[in-house]
Structure of Pseudouridine synthase:
Amino acid sequence: MRFDFIADKKTKVKTLLKGHDVSKNLLAKVKYKGGSILVNDREENAIYLLDIGDRVTIHIPDEEAFEKLTPISHPLDIVYEDEHFLILNKPVGYASIPSVNHSNTIANFIKAYYLEKNYPNKQVHIVTRLDRDTSGLMLFAKHGYAHARLDKQLQKRSIEKHYLALVSGSGELAAEGDIVEPIGRSKDSIITRTVDPMGKYARTSYKVLASYPENVHLVDIKLHTGRTHQIRVHFSHIGFPLLGDDLYGGRLDLGIQRQALHCHYLAFHNPFTKNESIYKLNLTDDFEEVIMDLQKKEVRYKN
């Protein structure tokens, strides 16, 4: 792939490129794996001294697929795609990446898709992951440079994600709130997490969108940090676990058997178009069915 940059001051090529999130590893790849650096269409090296107005062009070599990732053909619900990014509406029941327990994953499906399309860059770069039973928007970078640029946004916490969840508890849930509680591993499990004073900082904001019988609430949630199981742990901690989330005490008797969590909003700055990119999804069918059943109960209670 080709990318062009204009020098706005006298500096070395590598310094200019660093300011555009071109890492040392990527420069090494350009140097040793078939890429090139051009200044005003003339090949130069990374320490060449630029003048104001010089045009720097880098040609990044294509990325081969990871050999250990098995391609598995599977239908994909693609929300958006261009040469740099792909956004997927992830279904329930599939882990993001392979593990000891999961081999039929979203990463396997994306690799197969890239191979079927014969894309020049075939490595799978996941920017935002979702748990196996969480549905909604997942963001992929289609080449390493795009991934590096979004990693910067992740570090600055400027990629905004919102989730919809159905929660239920025995007390009263405030109309909106900010849950700031550290999260660490549970002492008796390698899977579950818990609020732990010695854990890592974690912050979750929420707003109640609707309330239903059985003390069930539809909440819009914004993640400020990205700890494992963060939303599930935080809402369980305040006494309102997600419906269907038996791992953290959620109810299983209201018609949904997976954690009722859906990533419905994703926003990030597209570093290539310079635009703010915003994507939204509606509620899933299983959310809608639970809500309809609860609304029927509400009508019966009133009558």
Q: What stands out?
A: Residues 212 and 295 are 7 Å apart (CA to CA). The two ends are 66 Å apart (CA to CA). The mean pLDDT is 94. The first strand starts at residue 2 and ends at 6.
